[in-house]
Amino acid sequence: MLEVEEQDKFGDHLFASGHTACPGCGQSLAARLVLRAAGRNVIVVNSTGCLEVFSSKYPESAWEVPWLHSLFENTAAVAAGIEAALKINGQLDKVRVIAQGGDGSTADIGLGAISGMFERGHDVLYICYDNEAYMNTGIQRSGLTPYYARTTTSPPGRVSMGNWRPKKDVPQIAVAHEIPYVATASVGYHLDLDRKIRRALSIRGPKYMQIHVPCPLGWGSDPAHTIDIARLAVNTGLYPLYEVEEGETKVQKIPRKVPVEEYLKLQTRFRHLFGKNGGKKELEEIQRIADRNIEKYGLIGK
Amino acid sequence: MKITLGTVTHPGGSRVNKTGSWRTAGKPHFLHQRCIACDLCALSCPEGCIFGTGQKTYYANEDYCKGCGICANVCPVEDIEMVSEEDEHG
Amino acid sequence: MVKGRMLQGARAMAEMVALCRPKVISAYPITPQTLIVEELSQIVADGDLEAEFINVEGEHSAASVCLGACAAGARVFTCSSSQGILLMSEVIFNISGMRLPVVMICVNRSVSAPLNIWNDQQDSMILRDSGWIQLYAENNQETCDLLLQAYRIAEDHRVMLPVMVCADGYVLPHAYEIVDLPDQEKADAFLPFYEPIYKLDVENPSTMGAYADPEKYMETRYMIQETLKKSIPIVEEVARDFSNTFARPSYGLFENYHVDDSSTVVVALGSMAGTIKDAIDELRTEGEKVGLLRMICYRPFPKEALYEALRNAVNIVVIEKDISLGASGAVATDMRAIFQGRDASPRISGFVIGLGGRDVTIDDIKLAIKKAQQQFEDADFIGLKEELELEGIDA
Ligand SMILES: Cc1ncc(C[n+]2csc(CCOP(=O)(O)OP(=O)(O)O)c2C)c(N)n1
Ligand SMILES: [Mg+2]
What we know:
The complex is a heterotrimer of chains A (about 300), B (about 90) and C (about 400).
Chain A: H1 26-38, E1 42-46, H2 50-55, E2 56-57, E3 60-61, E4 67-69, H3 75-88, E5 96-102, H4 103-109, H5 111-120, E6 124-130, E7 156-157, E8 160-161, H6 170-176, E9 181-186, H7 190-202, E10 207-212, H8 216-219, H9 226-235, E11 242-245, E12 248-251, H10 260-264, H11 280-297
Parallel strand pairs in A: 1-4, 1-5, 5-6, 6-10, 9-10
Antiparallel strand pairs in A: 2-3, 7-8, 9-11, 11-12
Helix pairs in contact in A: 1-7, 3-5
Chain B: E1 27-30, H1 40-43, E2 50-51, E3 59-60, H2 70-74, E4 80-83
Chain C: E1 5-8, H1 9-19, E2 24-27, H2 34-45, E3 52-55, H3 59-71, E4 76-80, H4 82-97, E5 103-108, H5 122-126, E6 133-136, H6 140-155, E7 163-168, E8 176-179, H7 184-190, E9 207-208, H8 217-246, E10 254-257, E11 264-269, H9 273-285, E12 290-295, E13 297-299, H10 303-310, E14 315-320, H11 330-338, E15 347-352, H12 362-374, E16 380-381
Parallel strand pairs in C: 2-3, 2-4, 4-5, 5-7, 6-7, 11-12, 11-14, 14-15, 15-16
Antiparallel strand pairs in C: 1-8, 6-13, 10-12
Thiamine diphosphate binds next to helix 2, strand 5 and helix 4 of chain A.
């Protein structure tokens, strides 16, 4: 197994200041933490989306590592090509390939390419920054938008309470490919995130990580609360943190169950659930999702 | 300025964007009283513009700080507060 | 004695690809390209080519794998047809915009609907605006010869643009012909190692695929346009060098078949040139001054050279296997533009022929020529079956 290079304290400079993400952007923070853990010997491929746009306006790049953006849906395939080139040139022992994109590029338009990359066994870590909608194009619904969230294409209206479907379980889709490592993480828990990135990069073969990253603009939350909100998502049970290595699941426990309302009420995308016109039924349904996660993954207790 | 083949560009050029000018709602003031050097402020900064090398040494590079307030919010010992731009007691 | 071996076209093309030593190959099966990919898989499986062969889940990914590998500094190859070309098209534009010297074969086939697996050139014609260099081959020997040249042109630091070699489906890859392939040493001498200008490298990091705002984007398009214009003499230069090295003619921009003394000149691309030459030979024995300009390099479009070659023609007869539906054939439209504002003004008629594998006969060619000599024709379909009643068209 490969030792991942030890990073010094200022290793986080691999994602430079001056990028143009919104204040309090969870995705920009997560991207910085990922590179801090990954170190210099990585090649990063990025899907079209917020992260790509706010970090690569020509000629001003925030990336200190080799970085390539091609299209919205082909990132896993481009990464596979880079890995193949490194492999045939005998460089794969020194260099790691990371493919990364938003939830839209991952769960929706790029899922086929990701599945192909997994199935062919490329030595690539795929990272999904899950901000739960198409933010770059102005907050449209994706396959990872949670139940009853307001987006511009799942607006609540006279006959709708917002997004009408639960989140697609992409981590379990990855698990079904029997790849060596799958993990969920949260920008609210940087130590856990850091450890999982290092772990993932120490394993050869395809890896999948999905990082929950609050989006103040899209979620209607206070930029100062990005970390708190990310932690609440975990502690309600709505975003269970776990890793699956060689088929075995390890979870990060939560200290006590926080009611989902505490998480939802900090975000205007759920405001319609707290109005005069009801939302009680929907809130109960969301609570049931959290409870099911707590039970399924054994999030509480020893 | 030269336009390169395929708009290939060099790393780190984003630093020319002084995003500090975006601030509208104040900036962090590091009190340097209770700081335990946990590094959480630096690790939680989306701009990567908070630095420190030990207790009570942390500061934000105001050229880049967008004033989001995450650092003040995550500080476990309440040693960072958000102040208005004019407030210069730091 | 004829040099070479009797080979199926697909086998010859695959062997030629191997002689070019790509490091990464990625493709997805589609008729009639499949044979080439199968042959290449076998060549790699037998260890006769040291390359990564990536069996992807679709053509969009095949092109993307090539894009990534090329950006990492590897010589790459892909190959597709028809729907696969259309599925790739987003990546095709991306590759040229990123200035990556990818080389591919488009085995020309019609596009759906209705589904039809036979030959025409609608698929590659759709991508004529993509910034790729497009070379159209007449036969298997030429397809192979152009492949070797394609890498030389694409990877030339004065060019750094992708090249698509177009070969008519079924007519070429499925046919057995004698093909003369160079030995590895000679191929290597003609085609040196690929030296990228930029690549993904942890020792020397760069950002590739940055986005350009309105202050910069237009220049990137202008740069490709100018580079394509400047690559016209490079295409000629490489063809000359090829002819000298391998003692076999390679025509460069186009083949001139009795053009100079002809008042009527047919313009066409690809394998139907064989039939057209037969028709011309017959007409010339009857005393008619008819010639053929067989275009090889369609993009960049060599306007000046074409003008010079055709300025004395009275009738230009464009016969093509594509149609910009609702307008005219793509080649006819381009040909007409050459003569705008110039002294020579030949009549340029356009004929659409052989779509979806419809047979192209000597009589069809003669009919087109005759019609064009009588009056101006545009997007005239040759070879329609009169016995068929067409709903919504025939009253
Ligand atoms: C083929 C294609 N379809 C649509 C788009 C438009 N588009 C660009 S980014 C984007 C949404 C990105 O969403 P996500 O992947 O979740 O990333 P985010 O911006 O939220 O970080 C869309 C729809 C595109 N660039 N390409
Ligand atoms: Mg998103």
